[in-house]
Amino acid sequence: MDAGLPALRLRGICKRFGSVEALRGVCFEVRAGEIHALLGENGAGKTTLMNIACGLVRPDGGTMELDGRGGFPGSPAEARRMRIGMVHQHFTLVDRLTVAENLALSVATASWRLDRRAMAQRALDLAAKVGLEIGDPGALVGDLPVGARQRIEIVKALAGETRVLLLDEPTAVLTPAEVQQLFTVLRRLRDGGIAIALITHKLREARAVADRVSVLRLGRVVGHGDPKAMSDRELAALLVGSALPTAELQHAVGKAERLRLEGVRLTPEAAPWSLAVREGEVFGIVGVDGNGQRELFEILAGLRRPAAGRVAVCGREVSRFTPLAMLSAGLASIPPDRRADGLVSGMAVWENLVLNAGLLAHFSHWGILAARDIRRFAADCAHRFRIAAADVDAPVAGLSGGNQQRLLIARALATRPRVLVAVNPTRGLDVAATRGVYEMLNEFVAAGNSAVVISTDLDEALEISDRVAVLYRHRLSEPLERPFAAEEIGLRMAGIWR
Amino acid sequence: MSEAVLASLLQSAVNMAVPLLLAALGELVSERAGVINIGIEGKLLAGAFAAMSVAYVTGCPWAGVAAATAAAAALAAVAAYLTVVQGANQIVVGTAINLLAAGLTGVLYRAQFGVTGAALTVSGLAPLRVPVLADVPVVGAAFFEQTWLGYAAFALVPVVSWFLFSSVPGLRVRAVGEDPAAAEAEGVAVERTRLGAVMFCGVLSGLAGAYLAVVYARTFIEGMSAGRGFVALAIVVFGRWMPSGVLAGALLFGLATAIQFHFQAMGLAIPYQFFLVLPYGLTLLILALVSGRAAAPAALGVPRARGGQL
Amino acid sequence: MRIPSGLQWAVALAAAFAASGAVVLLAGRNPLGVYRALFEGALGSTAGLAEVGVKGCPLLLCALGIAVAFRTGVWNIGAEGQFLFGALAAAWVAPHLTAVPPLPGAGVVLAAAAAAGAGSAGVAALLKQHRGVSEVISTIMLNFIALGVVSYLVQGPLMEAGGSYPQTDPVPEALRLRRLLPPTRLHSGVALALVAAVGVGFLLLRTRFGFAAKAVGANPRAAALAGFPVARIRTAALVLSGALAGFAGGVELSAVTYRLYERFSPGYGFTAIAVALLGRLHPAGVAAAAIFFAVLEAGSDTMQRTAGIPSVLVSVVQGTVILVLVGLERREWLARGMAQ
Fold first, then answer.
1. Are A325 and A317 in contact (CB under 8 A)?
2. How confident is the model at residue B28 (pLDDT cuts 50, 70, 90)?
3. Is the Cβ pair C316, B82 closer than 8 Å?
């Protein structure tokens, strides 16, 4: 291994998004001819760190050195000129361009001309050099399977004389065989002298391919070392944190079933999902993004019809999968992205509080809004759920994240549901706000209702759930009971089944 | 139908098609980059007015053409700044540009040339006859006795096609119109690309306006763009966002307009308004048959959120 | 949707009058004299004020419809065509209603107009819902189709009996909307427009539909998740929008022109887009903007006559006000609207 200067060195990197500290003084380096894995859960700050290194995000503080030269890239184009290549978790391929065109897009050329044949040949040459199969360069990217797209992403990142290759969760969408192929390629590139940073949450992958591993947790590096010298257990403990709160819950779980999924499949070929949630229970579903959470939520929220299987709320089977049908069946949901899916930012607090077809029907007669009732309701909600707004006429966009989340929960609860489905209910919230959300959930189930918390945050799921199931690669595990073996769950999230 | 009638019909069809083709090619590039220009109508009008008045004052139609592109480009710059840089709604800005152009040209025209009903005429661009080809019966006069603006319009079809599909900047244009976030992550300057596309559209609509003033009418009439900007928008949709489709659309719309003037000579029993409505109805029908959004650039009309995908 | 601050308004108006003042100077006239003529023409006499009502009526009705659509995130550019279809239906129905008592008769005429406008917008709505056709394009197409259809009918099947002009028979006298202040053209349709403004205001601000429409326009994903039928609400908004424009056409026919002819609309449907935008899609704002535009339109004739500046100058004012307001507001205002 080259023991010289690190090819890429990041020091003391800080970044805030609003009230959230994503990175708090992170140091990270990769040497030429090394694969350095950056391990961490969702929200640990891995992607933000890489986006800083590839010019998409400007840091608030810290320094960056590339081959001894200082300075952050100001744009992705500049990063590319600095010979940094990045494979994003979300593909940056344009679906309606061909493979060759996508590759040509990222390669800076002096020529104006886009010679189709030369372009196709260059794409094939590039792919051959890297040792990846990209198929027909004239095919539209949108028509290709994800594994093929992933390979194109990597070829694209290596176009030009790339010195540093950053990969953000590159295996999330690959089959095991494809993962092995990818690792072979990465090893060859490493041996060719390229510095590789691999972001992953999968212990096994880090162990299989990395020469060095750093663990990022809540915006800080909490450990690093040689993965071959560390046990799965050690790594998992670093990954999920040591002080796992398993305080006693006060939930009085009853017998009655509130929600039941039986053999629910996204597609006829997909693995079936089954679960049963009882009254008074918080049921946690943990997993890393992209493993089926979004789809599970969409089914429960009535935005997606499953290909097969049954969903029953309070013993009654749901036949229509629309948001309104779910609401009237007694299931309310809190979407993963507050701003994009939950709130209407141009509306006032009171308007957002009644932004629900069922509630609005309740608060109107013959289609006319009962303005006074609505305002009384809104003021009451704001008071009861401690939504700190100047008044209910204030624009909702001015509220803090915690207040926005309490507003969403207050609205969901106002429909008097028996089941509440929440996705990452405390993402981006500070400790006090997180507490507040948990209290609301606890109060809700204490009244004999149930909650399903779909979360990427293991701590959260463990703290508030009575039972936890793991969602990994669209497979839902059997639920685990309290007291939880946190390491066991951590291993399952990382794809290691015992 | 006699050969003479047919030839004359075809000639006026091509003449009507030229400004539509110019404007639609500009709009095509702009839409491929993700920006729709409702204000193209106003840019045409501004171009026509600038062309006529400068040609009138200087006596040189070429100066008029240059002035037309400058005037339309100025309006395009305002629209581009507001929609691309500031992310303002493209329809709102386009509507305002149309109003502004109608007002400016109307007031300045009357101030400059009075309210006289007698139409002023300017010396127009002279047609360039292509020897031999222009003598081909029926189609010769239509296609080979054009002004250089007319030839330029037709020549632009393969040029735009080459630009979009065989050049690096064209590839960037398409990428930006399909997926600005991905394009940005790949190092494409989204804003600059869109600004360029909108300005190109401005220049071409200026040329289209110039054609109306110094070739077709050889004068200026208030509101002489007469909806051609909106027709250009329709042609782009009709042509499925392809240069060849746009050419076909421009010729079809041109022919439909020409038939209105010739239908009596042609002895048709159909009311001429049928041809007035036909292209629009056809566009709607085509859109309805081949589902609407399929061919449109995916990010058309969407202002770009700055700062990547966080 | 935020209402612009008083300062933004002041800046926009000042800029607009300054810009058009510059144009007037370019034209070799004194801007102050021109503006005095403009405002005296509109506000300095009973006849002028009555004309403000006459011009404001179609502008207000069409702009209300556009506001309903735009608030819901539906970009109806077709008010001009819907206005024409409305007038066409009125002109076609009216002569057949001689046996009907005046009041219900006039009601039928206006209802036919509204239905025709709604129907033509409904075509765009259907194309959008089932075929994904952008309503921007389809409503523009329908504008041209309306022009062609009117042109054909007034020269053909609906041409006046015995006459030689390309226009329809007049609306029977009994079915006309009453003139309120002869000899001015002020008519009772103006009152109908004001009632419509109050009604649309009530609908948008006080009803479930208005609430849902606003949510759909501002964040369709959140609205869908909240259980609102997004596609149905969009369709309803577009159809209602067309009905209001069609109604405007019916009122214009049975109160002002009495006949349909080729250049029936001086572009009310297009100007109304500016009115709606200037009024920030809020019913009260739209009413204020309609009055402002009507003052400009009504005074522009006098201005043209006495100050020698063509009436289209008001378009410069109108265009500049919108551009400056958009520029002042940066990216927040309406910017998300077209995203769907």
1. no
2. very high
3. no
